């Protein structure tokens, strides 16, 4: 479960400078990030593809507040989409709408996303949309709803920790949405999110069943054995079978499990972040696991 105090402390610009300017940050980041360049993500994808594991290319960066920044991110995403057929990769791309201008205004974001989607469709590349903090959820859902009729392959991440998610999914049901179900990685206000790990897992399982009934080709973004086993059982029960769903995991997390599931014939895809704006992503990974946190704290105090 997410360590909320750490995510809060991680918002401090001083800590960000300390981590990003030091060798500590650079050392830690290698575990979770492919590298600074798109080519680094391509190499990781090629290695995974050899093991029958797909990739999800994620250009790091979020919360862009100016149109030029959003246009720059759009150009980078288009480059990521183009590299997939050019290098014969089994990969999708995943975008953050706050990087495409969602916090500037919805039209800017829609125009940028539209460019990416059009190019991806021409290239036969699937696009996924990450879900960010709860204040961006209503607009993210709106953008997804607007784009899906023209781009039905679009996949949206939905967070089991948010109280609103079951209702949001019900509202999307007529679209038979393609969803990546995750637990949720952001620090949220109490009124918006479920705090107990057991309750989040229970909601995850409930939404898993819902997706097999009402969604299209569901994806489960989790490393939790209980959630993965629940999805496998639901796939068998509903007749979806091994081919009817995807298990998605993060680069650097439970590598053994990724390999095992792929060798057993499950569809596995790994989320591969790359780029230099890695600080918020690294902090979310630190906050997910006490062992990461202890390692991080020891490195910071130099022991
Ligand atoms: P849980 O946190 O219970 O972990 C289960 C086990 O997995 C742990 O016991 C540990 O062994 C291992 N583990 C999990 N995280 C680890 C870590 N950081 N380091 C080492 N081991 C770890 N979130 C979001 O809000 N929006 C999004 O769009 C996405 N997108 C996304 C894509 C993909 C492919 C994945 C896998 C995850 C996301 N997430 C996300 C992150 C997600 O919300 C969640 O924070 C993490 O997946 C951790 O939750 P688990 O379901 O793995 O369970």
Structural overview:
With 303 residues, this protein is an alpha/beta fold. The protein has a single domain (34-277), classed as TIM Barrel, CATH 3.20.20. Helices cover 51% and strands 13% of the residues. The protein is built from 13 helices and eight strands. It has helices at 4-9, 13-21, 23-32, 38-50, 67-86, 106-123, 137-147, 165-172, 197-214, 225-238, 255-263, 279-287, 290-300, and strands at 53-59, 91-95, 127-129, 155-159, 178-182, 219-221, 246-250, 268-274. The chain has an eight-stranded parallel β-barrel, surrounded by six helices. Helix 10 links the parallel strand 6 (219-221) and strand 7. Helix 5 (67-86) runs parallel beside helix 6 (106-123). The protein starts with a helix and ends with a helix. Dihydroflavine-adenine dinucleotide binds next to strand 4 and strand 7.
Strand content: 5-15%
Counted beta strands: 8
Q: What is the chain-wise order of helices and strands?
A: HHHHEHEHEHEHEHEHEHEHH
Main sheet properties: 8 strands, parallel, barrel
Estimate the global geometry from the Cα principal axes.
globular
Count of domains: 1
Could you tell me how far the N terminus lies from the C terminus, measured between alpha carbons in angstroms? 26 Å
Identify the CATH class: Alpha Beta
Report the helical percentage: 40-55%
Across the major sheet, the strand order is: 1-2-3-4-5-6-7-8
CATH architecture: Alpha-Beta Barrel
Calculate Rg over CA atoms.
18 Å
Small-molecule components bound: dihydroflavine-adenine dinucleotide
Give the class from helix and strand content and strand pairing.
alpha/beta
Mean pLDDT: 92
CATH domain topology: TIM Barrel
* SS summary, helix count: 13
Low-confidence stretches: none
């Amino acid at each position: 479960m997410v360590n909320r105090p750490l995510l809060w402390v991680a918002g401090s610009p001083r800590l960000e400078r300390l981590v990003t300017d030091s060798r500590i940050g650079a050392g830690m980041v290698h575990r979770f990030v492919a590298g600074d360049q798109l080519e680094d993500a391509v190499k990781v994808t090629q290695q995974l593809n050899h093991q029958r594991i797909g990739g999800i290319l994620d250009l790091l960066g979020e919360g862009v507040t100016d149109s030029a920044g959003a246009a720059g991110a759009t150009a980078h995403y288009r480059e990521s989409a183009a590299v997939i057929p050019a290098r014969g990769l089994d990969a999708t791309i995943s975008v953050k709408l706050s990087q495409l201008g969602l916090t500037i205004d919805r039209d800017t974001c829609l125009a940028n996303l539209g460019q990416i989607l059009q190019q991806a469709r021409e290239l036969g590349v699937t696009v996924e949309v990450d879900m960010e903090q709860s204040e961006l959820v209503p607009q993210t859902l709106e953008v997804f709803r607007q784009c899906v009729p023209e781009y039905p392959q679009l996949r949206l991440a939905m967070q089991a920790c948010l109280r609103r998610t079951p209702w949001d999914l019900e509202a999307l049901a007529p679209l038979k949405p393609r969803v990546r179900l995750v637990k949720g990685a952001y620090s949220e206000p109490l009124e918006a999110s479920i705090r107990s790990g057991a309750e989040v897992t229970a909601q995850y399982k409930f939404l898993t069943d819902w997706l097999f009934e009402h969604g299209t080709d569901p994806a489960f973004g989790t490393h939790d054995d209980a959630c993965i086993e629940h999805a496998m059982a639901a796939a068998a029960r509903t007749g979806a079978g091994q081919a009817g769903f995807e298990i998605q995991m993060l680069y650097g997390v439970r590598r053994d499990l990724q390999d095992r599931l792929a060798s057993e014939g499950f569809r596995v895809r790994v989320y591969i972040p790359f780029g230099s704006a890695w600080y918020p992503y690294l902090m979310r990974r630190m906050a997910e696991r006490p062992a990461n946190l202890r390692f991080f704290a020891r490195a910071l105090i130099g022991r």
